[in-house]
Specification:
Blueprint lengths: L6 E5 L5 E6 L4 E5 L3 E4 L3 E6 L10 H13 L6 E6 L5 E6 L4 E7 L6 E5 L3 E5 L3 E6 L3 H6 L5 E6 L3 E7 L2 E13 L4 E5 L2 E7 L3 H6 L5 E14 L3 H10 L26
Antiparallel strand pairs: 1-2, 2-7, 3-6, 3-10, 4-7, 5-6, 8-13, 9-12, 9-15, 10-13, 11-12, 14-17, 15-17, 16-17
Length: 262
């Protein structure tokens, strides 16, 4: 089915919100729990599947939902529909600091591959499915790069990324990237996992043992702050996890909390 033609506005700088503007009868699908607010005429319903294949039978929906569960996503997606008689808005936000990226699927060839947790919302008609990297090396060593998300359609889709987003154009070149820093890439790019360097660099270099390698023709979106890296830093400084409660640059450490006021 053709995607609904939704309009949108993005607000904010580092903790952004996207407002989707729906004409009467139009719908948008989103990951469960990503909605911020909606106007009076919007109704929502949790459904199994993205609604892009309305003729899918029960078992077809179960199969697609099972693939989503394997990647750690919710079994259901939420469908928001404007049941009013005039334009209404519904807003979605990213779950951590970063940017929301609007992608016109028609202009990128109708398909894009993303990190598995980067999808935020899309016009009804967009197919949201899992894409498993077929290379065995990627499966064992790719970490966040093994299970990917694939979006297909001809409407607007929105993904989110951590930190600053950089766009790279490849014209036959090769780009080597930390696996967690990839946000999305177009379908003409080959993706694999390769050794980070010689044994000394792999063990002592601090860049990990393996890097993602992207080759071909197309566009790659990269993020400066993968959520896993942010979570690692927070956990490392969490007292409950054995980290230090000293502030950055502090020389007083725990003395600053001697009265227990923080």
């Amino acid at each position: 089915m053709r995607c609904h033609e939704v309009d949108y506005e993005i607000f904010g700088s580092d903790l952004q919100i996207v407002e989707i503007i729906l004409d009467p009868g139009e719908s948008v699908v989103a990951e469960a729990g990503s909605m911020n607010y909606m106007e009076e005429g919007i109704r929502f319903e949790a459904r199994m599947g993205d609604g892009s294949q309305p003729n899918d039978g029960f078992f077809g929906k179960i199969f697609k939902a099972g693939k989503r569960m394997l990647s750690g996503e919710s079994l259901f997606m939420t469908h928001f529909t404007n049941e009013g008689s005039r334009q209404q808005r519904v807003a979605f936000a990213a779950p951590y600091p970063g940017k929301i990226i609007a992608i016109d699927m028609d202009k990128v060839g109708g398909a894009i591959t993303c990190q598995k947790d980067s999808f935020l919302c899309a016009a009804l008609g967009t197919e949201v499915t899992m894409a498993f990297n077929k290379r065995l090396g990627s499966g064992f060593f790719g970490g966040e790069g093994f299970i990917l998300q694939e979006l297909r359609g001809d409407g607007m889709a929105f993904v989110h990324a951590g930190g600053t987003v950089i766009k790279k154009k490849l014209n036959g070149e090769t780009l080597r990237v930390d696996t967690g820093c990839i946000v999305a890439f177009t379908g003409d790019i080959d993706y694999s996992i390769e050794k980070a360097g010689n044994l000394k660099s792999m063990v002592l270099g601090g860049e990990g043992l393996f890097l993602a390698t992207l080759r071909g023709h197309g566009t790659v979106l990269l993020q400066s702050l993968p959520f896993s890296r942010l979570a690692d830093r927070v956990l490392a400084h969490a007292p409950a996890a054995g980290g230090s409660s000293a502030g950055e640059g502090s020389v007083l450490g725990g003395l600053g909390d001697m009265f227990g006021d923080r």
